[in-house]
Amino acid sequence: MTHVTEDDLDDLEFDTLRTGDHVTAARRLGELAEARSGGVSRANVLLRAGEQWQHAGDHRRAADYYRRAVQDGGETYGDPRAYLADALFELKEADEARALVAQIRADAPRDPEVYRAVAEVLYAQGDAAGAHEWATSGADVILALRDRAVGTGVGGPGEGAPDPDELALAEDSLEALLRLRYRARVDLGRGEDDYDALLDDLLKNA
């Protein structure tokens, strides 16, 4: 059995970026998922294995690993269903992919990265309207956290304020969400709005 840390996984993926050998990385991650005895969750390792299979162009194997990550139910970054939906779209299994997207929406996730992941999947499939909706919802999650942080939320000053680390992580997602939203608006032929003005402010202050 093997104790697997996030650093171990990051090192493996960094080496893969250098070598481009995604198949070997996927197989190694698959082995680690079965052999791990502690550290990161099994679901997290399975999800990373799926990503490597997808980078290798084997969407069927990627979908299998994503399904296993979903079924495992352990802690992961993001939502493995979004990654599974991406692989299913590539496999031309759009009905199941959209059903997964609907499931995620029904769960009302609070992680902005889930919204970004789904928005990117939909945009890649030519669904600019869907991407726009998800990117907007993700931005709204972050803006609501901001309101709570400064005491302008429903709970009143200081009450229910988010963890500073949570807010910082969320803020890291805001620019990507707003950029994707803007691209979708351009595709849809829509004019600029307040969210686009917010993006302009972020870029000016970067």
What would your notes on this structure say?
The protein has helices at residues 6-19, 22-35, 42-55, 59-72, 80-90, 94-106, 112-124, 128-149, 164-188, 194-204, and strands spanning 2-4, 36-39. With 206 residues, the chain is mainly alpha-helical. Helix 8 (128-149) packs antiparallel against helix 9. The model is unreliable at 152-158 (pLDDT under 50).
Concise account of the structure shown:
This protein is mostly helical and 206 residues long. 73% of the residues lie in helices and 3% in strands. The chain has helices spanning 6-19, 22-35, 42-55, 59-72, 80-90, 94-106, 112-124, 128-149, 164-188, 194-204; strands at residues 2-4, 36-39.
Helices, by number, come to 10
**Major sheet:** 2 strands, parallel
**Overall spatial form:** globular
Range of strand content: under 5%
Reading the helices and strands in chain order gives: EHHEHHHHHHHH
Q: Into which percent range does the helicity of residues fall?
A: over 70%
How confident is the prediction overall: mean pLDDT? 90
Instruction: Classify the secondary structure makeup into a structural class.
Output: mainly alpha
Total number of β-strand segments? 2
Strand order of the largest sheet: 1-2
Contiguous low-pLDDT stretches (5 residues minimum) are 152-158
**What is the terminal separation in angstroms?**
45 Å
Backbone CA Rg: 18 Å
